[in-house]
User: Which sequence fits this backbone?
């Protein structure tokens, strides 16, 4: 419910901002709203846990505006899902199995950029605010033990719900249709909400857990 409300409010903000800016700026100033979609590769990364990147997707809205000469500003919102593999051991078994940890939510970005070749090639970078769900595990593996820790897969679900990242991207194409490639480097430890007293008395190891987003994304955007 929180994610749905956030998505609605932020989408309204984008559409309202676009309508306002079209009235405020002259017609020859490039300022437009677009629809974007992409495929991502990555997810949570940790020096403590045995995690592996997975494939996910994103879709949303983006506004692109010229600011001054070759400088531009982008802000947008997108729904995302990314997947992370983790090694676990089920009760009574010695071999490890890899299961999927899935999270979804909304990302809001504010990018500044510079045009390299007119409206055809540019670089952009800036902060990303992420509002996400808990980690969801494969059904039937909730009580599997995480490799190297006295933790179950289910005990990792309570990740932080608001996180921050820095991102850089390259955009290329036509004025109304562009492809883009982006990399996100997480700044927030998404495991910071884990409570030692809830994790079988292994607090000294639980509090050391680190998990940040490392995400490469490529996609396409169409501007109206």
Assistant:
């Amino acid at each position: 419910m929180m994610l749905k409300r956030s998505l609605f409010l932020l989408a309204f903000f984008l559409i309202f901002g676009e309508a306002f800016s079209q009235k405020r700026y002259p017609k020859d100033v490039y300022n437009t709203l677009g629809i974007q979609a992409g495929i991502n590769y990555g997810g949570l990364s940790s020096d403590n846990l045995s995690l592996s990147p997975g494939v996910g997707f994103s879709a949303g809205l983006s506004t692109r505006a010229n600011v001054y000469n070759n400088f531009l500003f982008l802000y947008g919102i997108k729904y995302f899902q990314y997947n992370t593999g983790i090694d676990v051991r089920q009760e009574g078994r010695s071999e490890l199995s890899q299961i999927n940890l899935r999270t979804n939510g909304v990302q809001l970005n504010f990018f500044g950029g510079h045009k390299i070749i007119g409206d055809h090639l540019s670089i952009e970078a800036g902060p990303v605010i992420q509002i996400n769900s808990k980690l969801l595990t494969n059904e039937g593996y909730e009580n599997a033990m995480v490799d190297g820790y006295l933790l179950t897969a289910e005990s990792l679900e309570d990740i932080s719900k608001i996180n921050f990242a820095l991102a850089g991207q390259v955009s290329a194409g036509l004025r109304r249709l562009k492809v883009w490639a982006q990399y996100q480097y997480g700044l927030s430890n998404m495991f910071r909400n884990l409570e030692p007293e809830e994790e079988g008395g292994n607090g000294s190891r639980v509090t050391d857990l680190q998990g940040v987003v490392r995400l490469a994304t490529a996609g396409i955007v169409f501007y109206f």
Q: What stands out?
A: The chain has a mean pLDDT of 83. Residues 33 and 63 are 4 Å apart (CA to CA). The chain has two helices and nine strands.
